[in-house]
Amino acid sequence: MVVKNIYIARHAYSTSWLPKDEQPLSRTGIPNDLPLSDHGINQSQELAHYLLSVDTRPDIIITSPFYSCVETSQCIAKLLDIPVYLDNGLGNWFSKNSNSEITKPADFDTLNSLFPDVLKDSEHSTNVEPLSDGETKKELFSRCHNFVDTMLQQLNKEHPDISTILLMTHAPVKIAIGLNLLKLEDCDRTIDEDSNVLKASVCSLDRFQSSRFGMEEDEDDDEEDANETVTNGTQPMSDRWIMTMNNNIEYLRDGEERPWYFKKNIDGTENCNENEDVEEDQEETEVVYVSVDLDSGSYKESLSIDKNAIFQNSGLEREHPLIRIGDRLYEGTWQKLLGTELAFPDSASINRKDDGLASESTETADKETDNVRSVRNSRRNKNRNDTAHTEKIYRITDRLTLRGIEPI
């Protein structure tokens, strides 16, 4: 038997993400190497009970030596009664292009004194280390490849009784390992034709299964696998690994928190130390198209919007979002659009057909404004240099009616 299932988890909620005046002292004496919050301990227990409930449970845990990872591992190890091993190959990513201070974790003796009867001596260590002066994304990707390859060779050769492992680590490392197992080329790769990426939310779980064990393969893959020797384990990274779980958080009572993913074509210019509050900046971008009709309250007078006016919004997903146009503030109410309205974003125009309802805007009191929206994911935008024949047309389905709010 060899390793055929790999779980990869991101550690639970750390006190390093709390406001500075609420953070405890470091128990290892290393700045920013802080313990879990009470909320994080609860998350660890929720993950532990989830792993206890599944048929394929991990036989061992291999963890990053940073405190938050070891503490998360401890909760799982105690419930499942399995050993925990440290490996620097799972240590956090500190970008070479970031201004953050590079932190080295505590050694085995220090952590063993803080987590008695949990850690085992580092017999499974791969001796893979992060670069001391920080890493580019390419170097992180290479480090994770070397770690997984060395780890699997050691386990398959020295401990053939181990079939399922849990790797406890940090968001960037979790993703980079997953991309290596999927045989993708670098950290910026998407995982499917819909441009989805690997994400790592707090205390989330991924699972990868070797295609040689229990997975349906096409005939070509079966023939190729049949020619390999299952027990030698000499080239584990040549195996095909299939992702059966991606950023799973179904067991977390409070759902997803602090999702992290790589920003394409940005080589760590943001602070990539997880001890800093960087994940919240990685929200996905939406493009919103809006047509605006302003009612002046008079048939003889019309209003126009200065093309340089600043347009701001807050809470478009709510029933009553707030909109600011220039120095005026409005409260909106969403309504389903009657008739048909089309948006031509590439030509920056919106054509409207109201099916006999064109007079509706003139009947709206108190300077109400009709706005309509069309939202699309910015990652799927077509190149603006494409020909007119490839221009996309969007059908608007919702209307936002605005009511002016007067200052108190």
Automatic annotation (TrEMBL):
Native species: Maudiozyma exigua (Yeast)
SUPFAM superfamilies: Phosphoglycerate mutase-like
Residues covered by region (Disordered): 213-235, 349-390
Bias type Basic and acidic residues, positions: 364-373
Bias (Acidic residues) ranges: 216-227
Protein name per its UniProtKB record: Transcription factor TFIIIC triple barrel domain-containing protein
InterPro entries: His_Pase_superF_clade-1, His_PPase_superfam, Phosphatase_SH3-domain, Tfc7/tau55, TFIIIC_triple_barrel
Pfam families for the chain: His_Phos_1 (PF00300), TFIIIC_sub6 (PF10419)
Cross-referenced PANTHER family: TRANSCRIPTION FACTOR TAU 55 KDA SUBUNIT, UBIQUITIN-ASSOCIATED AND SH3 DOMAIN-CONTAINING BA-RELATED
Signal peptide: none
Biological classification of the source: Eukaryota, Fungi, Dikarya, Ascomycota, Saccharomycotina
Domain Transcription factor TFIIIC triple barrel: 283-406
